[in-house]
Amino acid sequence: MQKSDHHEQNLTSPRGLIHKVLRRTNSRRSPTAAEQDPSPVFPETSNTKFLKQKNVEGASKDPEKGSTHDNRIEDEKSDLLGYEVCSGKLTLDNKGRSVSGEQSGSGSSGNCFDARLTTEALVWGSNILKLEDIVSVSYNAGLRHFTVHACPLEKRSNGLSCFMKPRRIQKDLRFLSTAPHEAFRWVNGFADQQCYVNLLPHPMASSKKHSSELIPFDAMLDPYVKCRSPPKILVILNPRSGHGRSSKVFHGKVEPIFKLAGFKMEVIKTTHAGHAKSLVSTIDFSTCPDGIVCVGGDGIVNEVLNGLLCRDDQIEAGSLPIGIIPAGSDNSLVWTVLGVKDPISAALSIVRVNNISFVQFY
Ligand SMILES: Nc1ncnc2c1ncn2[C@@H]1O[C@H](COP(=O)(O)OP(=O)(O)OP(=O)(O)O)[C@@H](O)[C@H]1O
């Protein structure tokens, strides 16, 4: 939720405003999940096919050169998954809660995996979790484990999966690293990739048995985790939207994601038509410096934008990020502008820094 430094002059009409939103988001929008290659495994590009072919040929001619070709294929994989940030051994410690389809990949024994964090994904064994699906990471200072909270698209194993709508499910993946300082290194890697880190004290620090002798040496030395500060937002919810289902959508699906991502939020439910507009036209922006999230349909977004247009402080109003959680009966605006239809995907986009659902206009 970075604010833009640039500002255009006067915003004249809501229509002009929405055009600006469209222009900006279309030019900046990263491809949505649907637009990207859905394959969780490395897609075989013509380039990789070529490399593999060469590798096979090379291997048959000169077996010793095989490893060089392997490296070249590895390079291709690195490109597709971004640049490596952190790597090492991780044990998946999800008793009975493992991700469906998880297998012990190469280099793994049992639940212990060769893992790496890249600028695009967390990879362990043959599993890939995209960073854009990660909500946050919880970490107790001085311990060996950390938990990755994510909402990946569900892998359906039955043959009818292609006819079913993709669905996101909440996963808490608890990883155990080899040592406390290793856990710290992984957590910092996530923080570097703009994942929110929910940094908790060492459990003994809050227990009654607390004494300086009980706190492990590592915990005392645990250096500062570079986590970003929790965003402060205002949520404006139209409880009538979506035939009265918007509150359930927000409290059931979206609020837990925002809480996991450390959001400090005030939720205001509109009581009548025009409420959102009058609220936004007078609100003190210091109470929601990181933006306003509209929960509902097109009508509530329209009211919020109109409320901003009524203000005298147009520059501040124009640079405030506006998020949209589709919970109305139609939601054509958010779908047209941002290519997002379901509330969980919209919430995930909002909690990521390089989000697409947080509309910025100026
Ligand atoms: N508490 C409320 N009671 C009645 N109407 C409201 C209330 N809050 C907002 N409204 C009005 O309801 C209108 C419709 O709201 P909204 O677009 O959010 O829902 P929707 O009609 O379900 O969604 P869509 O526009 O996607 O069909 C808005 O224009 C707004 O002025």
TrEMBL record:
MF terms in GO: ceramide kinase activity
GO biological process, one term: ceramide metabolic process
Annotated Basic residues bias: 17-27
Biased composition (Basic and acidic residues): 59-74
InterPro entries the UniProt entry points to: ATP-NAD_kinase_N, Diacylglycerol_kinase_cat_dom, Lipid_Phosphate_FormReg, NAD/diacylglycerol_kinase_sf
SMART domains according to UniProt: DAGKc (SM00046)
Domain DAGKc: 228-362
GO CC annotation, single: membrane
Residue ranges, annotated region (Disordered): 1-74
Name of this chain's protein: DAGKc domain-containing protein
Organism for this UniProt entry: Aegilops tauschii subsp. strangulata (Goatgrass)
